Amino acid sequence: MKFEDLLLEIGGFGRFQILILAVLCLLRINLPMHFLLHNFLAATPSHHCAIPHQEAFVNLTMEEVLLISIPRKPDGTFSSCEMFSQPQFHLLLNSSLQPENKSIIQHCQHGWVYDHSQFTSTISTQWDLVCEQRGLNQATATFFFIGVTMGAMVFGYLSDRFGRKTMLQLSLVCSVVFGMLSAASVSYTMLAITRTLTGVALSGLSLIVLPLGMEWVDVQHRTFTGILTSIFWSVGNMLLALAAYLVREWHWLLVAVTGPCLLSIICLWWVPESARWLIAKGKVKQAHRHLLRCARVNGRKDFTLWKDMPLTMYAQRIVLQREYKNMGGSYSYISLFRTPVLRKISLCSGVVWFGVAFSYYGMSMNLTGFGLSIYLSQFVFGVIEIPAKMVMYVLVNRVGRRQSQAWTLILTGLCIGANIVIPKPFTSLRSVVAVMAKGFSEAAFTTVYLYTSELYPTILRQNGMGYTSFMARLGGSLAPLMFLLDEVWRSLPEVTYCGVAVCSGAVAFLLPETLNLRLPEGIEDIE
């Protein structure tokens, strides 16, 4: 008897599973509040060079002081990174006559003055991460995703070895500790280190929540489970916009988005360990206890049904032990590449995950240029994800996982490419296309989580999720750095996001279809 048959006997989607999913969805809200925090934590308000001896210009308005002290850019706005070495009083007579002598223009010598109308403080204003230091500002997001990348490999392996729930608890506790330390940072170096460690901790939460939920539900409700947990990512997305709108100071904003992890730790105590994992590890009695509890909560009280269950689970354990023996008695990330079919799945899914994350975070961290405030853009980007997920719930069950994955990625790239050629003044049209791109991108992310959980066997599922999550976080780490390419060519970042999304979408066609198939338990099921 397969584990799927056991689930059907005790209730594959009853009150027990609904309660588990309710807690896991609450946990998932925490993720976007940190993963997309860079939009507000490192926001750079409008700024200009600090003007020395400004008190000497008491008879001039602020606009006139800027006019004689700060050169204008070709678009007519004041430069953010340059100033005149001496006041250019002649510009008061004719402001259109910008000095042709470039030698009188120099970089900011006395710091910067920031517009605090939108943000009380950010790390940009705290440590002057602008102009020549702009790269350090973008690198803050990269450090976080490097942490998530490292955590994906660590938690993927540890959750297969020590259990899903144990690693989930460790992930949440570490997230609280490092999140609070980030809020207390007194230097950029301290912030970079603590944000990296926060990324490591949160990676466990990102990696384990969905597989744990899916290992408790039957085949018919796997898609619903994947979409439901994904919807709560969007809820967290919108809550981040609200939190950032209400808390404009970066230290307290970090406290606000870390606080919910404490509630998650309390709620997680009720969630049981994965019975699939327990059986695979030979812990039959513990799995038996959880399955009996599931039956009672689901109203399946015919306890005569359970006399032979330990024998059934023992038989399944023997099958899995045979798998381990065939693999040389151990399993690791190397096992993902040992057999032909599993090797192809791992290579292709790695490329797909990289493309999904690279394009998703590339758009999610570019909230300007659409004619909306940064808070409204964040909220709208979160709202559009929900109908995108609803549509995917229908599509992945009608057209399949593979087609859905490939086309959502390709359409994401095409929408990003369309915004390259749409002129900047057409802000409404650009906003609509950007929202469409965000919707397709989120649909691709929703599908890839569900799809990957179904591609790998139980004994390697968390290793597979760890590897693919590593590839995703690699894409997430590189995505914010692409914005620095606008100094080479203004549209180069968008061209890069577009090309990667389309190419990774094409690779998705090489993956096998998993619609209505049972979750594979061992490598034999894959090969």
Structural account:
- The protein is mainly α and 527 residues long.
- The protein folds into three domains: 227 residues, Growth Hormone, Chain: A; 68 residues, no CATH class; 191 residues, MFS general substrate transporter like domains (Growth Hormone, Chain: A).
- The protein is built from 21 helices and four strands.
- It has a two-stranded antiparallel sheet. A two-stranded antiparallel ribbon has the order 2-3.
- α2 packs across α9, α8 packs antiparallel against α19 and α15 runs antiparallel to α18.
- It starts with a helix and ends with a helix.
- About 2% of the residues have low confidence.
- It catalyses: glutarate(in) = glutarate(out); orotate(out) + L-glutamate(in) = orotate(in) + L-glutamate(out); 3',5'-cyclic AMP(in) = 3',5'-cyclic AMP(out); GTP(in) = GTP(out).
- This is Solute carrier family 22 member 7.
- One of its GO terms (molecular function) is prostaglandin transmembrane transporter activity.
